[in-house]
Amino acid sequence: MSGRLGRVLEFHLRLYQVLGFHGLPLPGDGSPARTRRQLMAWSLFLLISLSGLIITCLTSGEEFLYRGDMFGCVNDALKYVFAELAVAAIYLETLSSQRHLANFWWLHAKLGGRRVGAASLRSEFQQYRRYLVSLYGMMCSELLLHLGLWQVQPLTNHMFLFWSSYEPLVCLTYMRNIQFVLHLELLREQLTALERELGLLAEYSRFASETGRSFPGFESFLRRRLLHKQRLYSDVYDMLKCFLGAFNFSILAVLLTINIRIAVDCYFMYYSMYNNVVNIDYYLILPALLEIPAFIYASQSCMVVVPRIAHQLHNIVTDSGCCSCPDLSLQIQNFSLQLLHQPVRIDCLGLTTLDCSLLTRIACSVGTYMIYTIQFIPKFSNQYM
């Protein structure tokens, strides 16, 4: 990684290095090649250790899985299996996608180099406020729910074994999800800056058109600025492709793991109520209900900026006396075609676009299978298990 990072960003990237999610040395690290090898070895160690933990939980004779009946046992096993899928995707992608991630941060440093001076800590908190609210808001909600739950819920041997082994996996998938949010926030920041700068060009051209006041070479100035903005957009688009290349598989695995956890806990919640099982730990899915919307909101926030960029682009006045040459119109048309052929579309391996419509589909799928569960729940009695 090159360039200069703010204190807030550097602190959280260090955190991701500790978790094994970020395999690149940071600016200022001595011996970058050695640091990279150490980070890769640490990620591999975490992958093997966590995979061994999950296999032990699935095959052990201890009560890691619910032993009351087969329905609860299968639900717990599903959580472990999809957690293993997420862990494998996260760490294998960390080990194999170093080039894409390095290119992302190189482009970020290149675009960030336009800023002058060091930002204050307060301005950095303001800059990353969405990411910080997502990170620490859900961390606090998870902690408060655990503290409150274990005050009223009897801590059985099964619950102690299950949650002491499963909660670290939940936290890892959650932190990976928030890592996606961080990178999307960096993309959104560049897109909104480009939108503001194009808005200023549109205001300049509108003022010149309405007042007839400009300066010699005003049209050439506009064309040069538009060409510069086109190159900036091309760099931002390359950042997007690097982001997708670095996180594609783990995005699918993390979203699938969170979705499966929500689904099976919803099913088991109704099953527990129906059979009067004294178990309310399904309330711990409440933070998980916010994890996918947090990522979708960050993704949608990036994608909605591009139509606004196109709107500002076409607000540039080209038919006034000061800038009536058709070359400026051709430049705007060229930029518009670039926006059309290089869309900011954040998807999951091309399977689905990660926008708000995905939340509707998830809710519909969980609701549909909840109906199936309610219909067949009378058959899930002990004599059939």
Automatic annotation (TrEMBL):
The chain crosses the membrane at residues 39-61, 131-152, 239-262, 282-306. Keywords: Cell membrane, Membrane, Receptor, Transducer, Transmembrane, Transmembrane helix. It comes from the Eukaryota. One of its GO terms (cellular component) is plasma membrane. Coiled coil: none annotated. It is a multi-pass membrane protein. It holds the Pfam family 7tm_7. It is found in: Cell membrane. Gustatory receptor which mediates acceptance or avoidance behavior, depending on its substrates. Belongs to the insect chemoreceptor superfamily. Gustatory receptor (GR) family. This is Gustatory receptor. It comes from Drosophila suzukii.
